[in-house]
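hey so u asked for the seq, here:
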Amino acid sequence: MNPLLTTTLTLAAFLGCCLPLGNTKKALTAEDVNFPKEWHLWKGEHGKTYEDLEEELRKHLVWLGNKEYINQHNKFSNVFGYTLEMNRFGDMVGNCSS
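ran it, structure tokens below
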């Protein structure tokens, strides 16, 4: 199965089944979610921090999509004549106007 789809489904299941509803005494944090080590390394390398778990989950999904795009592109780098790599913009979508 596609890694992006697997992670998306896992996050959707987590959001739908595991996040508490209503008022809670403890808000969930990024430490409560099992993000992959590569995500933490990338955030540290680029000094990325997020206001809350919801923003981090959104940014992580964007990062995963960009990572998959890079991987697919690089499989055919001989056709394109160049390779791509993740950079500090990896958690952003292509339209930077927002």
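Residues 35-80 form one domain. The mean pLDDT is 82.
lmk if thats what u needed
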